[in-house]
Fold:
Amino acid sequence: MIILKLLGLIGGMSWENTIEYYRIINELIKEKLGSWNSAKLILYSVNFEEILSLENKDRWSEIVLIMTNISRNLENAGCEALMLCSNTMHKIADDLQNNISIPIINVVYETALIIKELKLKKVGLLGTKFTMEGDFYSKKLEEKYNISVIIPGKEDRDYIHSVIYNELAQNNLFDTTKQSLLRIIDKLKSQGAEGIILGCTEIPLLIKPEDLELPLFDTLKIHLNAAAQFILKAEITNF
Structure:
């Protein structure tokens, strides 16, 4: 009998995105093991209105307290690792990791490993303003993996941020938006980007690998594959 590891998910940021986490993790487990196998998961879904309000007011210390409490509850419930179902929330991933004893499957590190495999030295980053303007992607990639990160200009950052919250997170997909995002990616390419990180789990709803010549790093897909790999680090027993 295969005993799968229990994974805790902190989702709801947004709930549409969290559905994809739950669905695809289970699909990956079934694809690997077949039959009626599915992932062992505990999901804590937040009210995103509360979290987003704190983000917009730059009250991240309060978010840390909320997320730390949730993380500890999941750890106490028996979870063997945690996932934050949001790129933006990885802004506080190190703070959370310092307050719990189980690992957080960090999307930044998992993405960096994939980029490193391709031996790229400079990548562009798209995401929310918190992701693009924060240093939790750029600093880690540059200091630990020697990968330079470039981001769009301020006007384009404002546009991408608005699109994520007002369109993509509401499941409103428009071709005009797709074309605008592709133009922004072209600007990053002209600045030397050798690949593009889609540092938001909603952007891949619009931008696909076949849409551009540069390598595309879909952080949702990368994160989900890492989750499945962790769950499948199973122990086999005769009981």
Q: What stands out?
A: The chain has two domains: 2-106+223-236, 108-218. The domain at 108-218 is CATH 3.40.50.1860 (Rossmann fold).
